[in-house]
Each structure stands twice: as C-alpha cells, then as structure tokens.
Amino acid sequence: MGFDVDINENLKTRIGRLQAPNKGLSALPAKYYHLIAGAATGCRFKQETGYSFVGSNITRAGAKFYRAKSLSGKWLNIQLPDDLKAWDSLTLEYFSDEKIRALISLRKGADLSKIKSATEFDLYLKDLFLTLRDDELDEMSIKDWRQYIWKQVSRRDAAKLWKKWYKRSSMPGVGEVWLPNRARRPEFEDQRVWSSAPHYLSPFVKTPDCEENWTSDRCLDAIAVMDSWEVDFEWSEEAQWVGARFGEKNCRKLELNESLETIACSALAKRQKEVGESSSDSDPARSSSGADAAR
Question: How far is Cα 225 from Cα 213, in angstroms, rounded to an integer?
C-alpha cells in the first residue's frame, strides 16, 4: 500500500474543519490501521470467494458498528446527575473564577468544609476532571480550566442529543447502539455565523431546538461535538472501504492447497531479495569489489 491509498481529500478537509478547527488536520492521527485492516479483510474475502465488493461492503458495515460501540461505551452510557434541572440550566457563566478555584480544590481532595461555594452539584462536576493529573492541573490557567470543563459539558450534552435524535439499535455481539442518521436531526443555521448579518435577514435564521433551558450557544456547542462524532463514522467507514477495495483489486483467489500464509512468506522473501539487491547496487565498496572480481 502506498500513500495514494487513502480517503478522499474532501472528507479530509471536513475532518480537519470539524475536529481540529484551530490546529488543522496535521494535529489529528492518520488512522492508517483502518486502511490496513480493510485491505486484509478485502484480500481474504477475495481469496476465499473470488468476488469483489463482498469484503468492502462488509468492512464498511463493520466499521459503522465498531464506531457506534466505541462511542456508546465512552460517552453515550454516561449517567447525568440526578438533579437534571441544575444540569439543563447550566451556563458558561456558572463557572466564575471563584467556582473554578473551588472545583480545582475539590478535584485535589481538599477539605470540603473549607469550601463554602461547593455544592452537591459541584461534587458531580469535579468528577469531569478525573482524567487530569495534578501536575496538569497546576499548569492550567483559570481560562484553560473554564474551556476544559465546558468541553466536558458539551460532550455530555451531545450524548443527550444523540440519544434523543437518533434511533436506538441492537446488534448481537455489539449490544445497544445509536447509529447516526442526519435526516432525523433538526436543521438550522449557526446563529453565530449570522451575528453581523443585516437585520432584515434575521427572520430567515432558524434557531436550534435542543433542550428547553439551554442557551443557543450551549446547544450549538453540543451540536459541534455531534458533528465531530458523525464525521468519525464517515472516516472509519471510508478508510475501511478504501483499504478493502485495495485488497480486492490486488489479491487473487487461492489455488488448491494454497494458503494466505504461504503467499505472505513468498512475498516477504521476494521483498527481502529486492531490498538486498538494491542495497548491493548502491554500495560503492561492494560494486568495486564485484568489478575487481570480474576482472
């Protein structure tokens, strides 16, 4: 496989815009393992059946459920606090400098009796930072903390909307998942893009319909996370499909008593021989000694 075996450029651009809008696509992992796994699967199906498109279609479907299971395990099965009213009315303004400092103290296990601003709800919020080490906390500014905690809030909001808008499915060996379906999502424009638009255009700007007590910004932040998750599905599916098509095109059907292992060993031996010959030709010392011997 070469660098030409990859997902299309339009999808790459969308991935970069949605998942790394500030740092760019270079900040994201390449995920070549999807291409390699797809190639191996496509090759094996072609060898066993002699048909193309069987392995590529199966790997694409498998990638969708793989991504759905991963998302469900990481975010969709997270339980929100019992006090849902407090959660749904949460705004960025709640996280004042004083509140952030209190949450940092809670995260580090300080004496709760000395933190007058701490509430039961804050005790839930401090659990959002259990993945951070103490030395990382010390390096973060109040602004960094505020951005970090709001990102965690947006992810939980996105999980809530995901389960609200998408249909639940169940698959043997995978379990309960929610597969994305853009047609089930309400459509609207991001009002923040239209903030400087002429007033006579404002009636044509649709407002998001998320949760009753959410601000528009909170809704849009959650949807931005959903968009990032959705493009992950496209990324995995496309990479598996491209890899599988490569495998189908470059693998032949196995002959009688032939195995994938023997083909792999033969290919490896051939490759090692080619590399050895190439290095021998490029080594001046070995080339001159060969010429002397020829004389």
Answer: 19
**pTM, 2 dp:** 0.74
Asked if pLDDT for residue 191 goes beyond 70, the answer is no
Q: What is the DSSP letter of 72?
A: I
**Adjacent-strand bridge partners of 177:** 169
Comparing C-alpha atoms, which of 47, 30, 27 is closest to residue 260? 47
Distance between the two ends of the chain, CA-based, in angstroms?
Answer: 42
Q: Which pairs count as long-range contacts for 173-179, CB under 8 Å and 24+ apart, including other chains? A: 174/65, 174/68, 174/69, 175/69, 175/72, 176/72, 177/65, 177/68, 177/69, 177/71, 177/72, 178/68, 178/71, 178/72, 178/76, 179/64, 179/68
Asked if 175 and 72 touch (Cβ cutoff 8 Å), the reply is yes
Radius of gyration, CA atoms only, the chain: 27
pLDDT at 283 over 60: no
Query: What's the CA gap between 206 and 220, in Å, rounded?
Result: 12
Tens-digit pLDDT profile for residues 91-137? 888 888 888 888 888 777 766 555 566 677 887 788 777 777 778 87
pLDDT for the residue 83: 65
Q: How far is CA 36 from CA 32, 105, 234, 264, 267, in A?
A: 6, 46, 17, 15, 17
186 torsion bin: left (phi>0), alpha (psi -120 to 50), beta (else): beta
